[in-house]
């Protein structure tokens, strides 16, 4: 069965009787008029559909918890939706912990992860009752034990390990291979376990955590990841007589950014994971563990689109044509960072045939600010509204104020209703943290 991460567009996308693209029952051209552009639009139905597809895919394995990887895109409204769907949150900073907590997430279901958590962040996690901490390194073991002790608590932890598995994705978003800044490599695990058992009495080791990378299309890699973790758990059981009950497999499932992308379905991934658990828990003589899955991109990527307005265009002497839009690398740094490729359509004229090859450029002062290179589009005119699909993940969350351009607004659409979930920044916002020393004041 196809799942929504395998579609290019949000599940509610259609062309309405005005011949405009519509998502969540909302006409994108009208949204652009009402809220301005650039505008991030998130489809609640798609988010909930994918969240349910994850839960359904693992129905046959009852010991599973879903944690949404907040880094992909987190606002209070997104926390509310995924909390309602029964998800916890994978969080990597005080800011993500604060957002989850202030939006009413069930903190017991949440996990704090990251390779250089500060003392204050660990303190915040412990105070706010975050259920699990994935400890990344030796320094953090000591810090967290100190924090837990001073709060009179014992904290459940996972050890983040690098399983030595390489996946075929962009090198910046691979994380499970041995040369990685994240986690303990497998040769360090025994030392860490020994310290926890002998010295760190306020830490309770319950399992292992790994994440192999992002935008993954291979299913077998999840089979291998489970095997590496269960083998390690078997070894730890034998050597330390310690029963670890949890494995966290991270996120990583890919989505379809262009017609050429063929990501696997959520069911295919789930089947690989479950079969690996069944086979390898027997092979390595361990109990079938509780598993945690941490999807980010595959939940929110397809659920979000970005609307831009077409502005100037330029024909260069070699015949190439640039068409500029009112956003770019500051609201979506992925094309310039990872050479990511997107699909765009004209929201106000979706039936028009592609007639010319253009490069869609951003508005930022950098030649590398190109959103899509050499793409066949209908003839684009000033004022056209472009809809970029699959921008829901790692767009807003990695956005910046480069050139002191205001960050766009985000709206949530559902059943023909649209609601602001992030206000468009204002110039007052922009200078709110700036201070002028007295001696420089006019
Ligand atoms: N769990 C851990 C420990 C992670 O490090 C990540 C992503 C995830 C879960 C979620 O992975 P996802 O399901 O979203 O693939 N900025 C890059 C992606 C960086 C991913 C970092 N870690 C991009 O825009 O492609």
Structural description of this entry:
The structure is a single chain. With 442 residues, the protein is an alpha/beta fold. The protein has helices at residues 28-35, 44-57, 76-84, 94-102, 119-127, 138-150, 189-198, 220-240, 266-283, 297-300, 334-338, 427-431; strands at residues 14-15, 21-23, 26-27, 39-43, 64-69, 88-91, 111-112, 132-135, 155-162, 184-185, 203-209, 246-248, 290-293, 304-315, 321-325, 344-346, 356-361, 370-377, 385-388, 409-414, 417-422. The protein has two domains: 4-42 and 302-431, Beta Barrel (Lyase, Ornithine Decarboxylase, Chain A, domain 1); 44-300, Alanine racemase (TIM Barrel). Helix 2 (44-57) packs parallel to helix 9, helix 5 crosses helix 6 (138-150) and helix 8 packs parallel to helix 9 (266-283). The N and C termini lie far apart (66 Å). Strand 2 (21-23) and strand 3 (26-27) form a beta hairpin. The radius of gyration is 23 Å and the shape is globular. Strands 4, 14, 15, 16, 17, 18, 19, 20 and 21 form a nine-stranded mixed beta sheet that branches. Strands 5-6-7-8-9-11-12-13 form an eight-stranded parallel beta barrel, surrounded by six helices. It has a three-stranded antiparallel beta sheet with strand order 1-2-3. The model has no long low-confidence stretch (mean pLDDT 96). Bound molecules: ligand LLP. Ligand LLP is lined by residues 69, 71-72, 90, 113, 173, 175, 211, 214-215, 250-253, 294-298, 334, 338, 393-394, 398.
Quick overview of this protein structure:
Helices cover 28% and strands 23% of the residues. It has 442 residues and is α/β, with parallel strands linked by helices.
């Amino acid at each position: 069965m196809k799942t929504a991460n395998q579609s290019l567009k949000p599940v509610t996308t259609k062309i309405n009787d005005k011949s405009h693209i519509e998502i969540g029952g909302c006409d994108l051209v009208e949204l652009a008029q009402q809220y301005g552009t650039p505008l991030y639009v998130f489809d609640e139905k798609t988010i909930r559909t994918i969240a349910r597809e994850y839960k359904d895919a693992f129905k046959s394995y009852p010991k599973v918890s879903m944690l949404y990887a907040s880094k992909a895109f987190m606002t209070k409204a997104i926390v509310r939706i995924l909390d309602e769907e029964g998800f916890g949150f994978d969080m990597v900073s005080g800011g993500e912990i604060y957002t989850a907590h202030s939006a009413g997430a069930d903190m017991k279901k949440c996990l704090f992860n990251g390779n250089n958590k500060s003392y204050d962040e660990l303190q915040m996690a412990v105070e706010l009752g975050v259920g699990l901490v994935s400890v990344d390194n030796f320094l953090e073991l000591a810090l967290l034990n100190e924090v837990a002790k001073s709060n009179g608590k014992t904290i459940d932890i996972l050890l983040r390990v690098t399983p030595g598995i390489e996946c075929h994705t962009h090198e910046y978003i691979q994380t499970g291979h041995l040369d990685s800044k994240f986690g303990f490599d497998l040769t360090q695990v025994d030392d860490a376990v020994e310290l926890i058992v002998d010295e760190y009495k306020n830490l309770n080791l319950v399992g292992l955590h790994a994440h192999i990378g992002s935008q993954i299309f291979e299913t077998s890699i999840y089979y291998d990841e489970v095997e590496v973790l269960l083998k390690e758990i078997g070894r730890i059981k034998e050597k330390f007589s310690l029963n670890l009950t949890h494995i966290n497999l991270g996120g990583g499932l890919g989505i379809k950014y262009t017609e050429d992308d063929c990501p696997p379905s959520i069911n295919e991934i789930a089947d690989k994971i479950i079969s690996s658990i069944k086979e390898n828990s027997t092979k390595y003589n361990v109990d079938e563990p509780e598993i945690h899955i941490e999807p980010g991109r595959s939940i929110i990527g397809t659920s979000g689109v970005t609307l831009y307005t077409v502005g100037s265009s330029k024909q260069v002497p070699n015949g190439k044509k640039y068409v500029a839009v009112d956003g770019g690398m500051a609201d979506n740094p992925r094309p310039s960072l990872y050479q990511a490729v997107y699909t765009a359509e004209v929201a106000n004229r979706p039936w028009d045939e592609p007639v010319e090859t253009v490069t869609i450029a951003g508005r930022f002062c950098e030649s590398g600010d190109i959103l899509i290179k050499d793409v066949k589009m209908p003839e684009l005119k000033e004022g056209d509204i472009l809809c970029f699909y699959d921008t829901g993940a790692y767009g807003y969350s990695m956005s910046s104020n480069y050139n002191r351009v205001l960050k766009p607004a985000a709206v949530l659409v559902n059943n023909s209703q649209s609601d602001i979930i992030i206000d468009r920044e204002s110039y007052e916002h922009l200078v709110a943290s700036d201070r002028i020393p007295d001696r420089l004041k006019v």
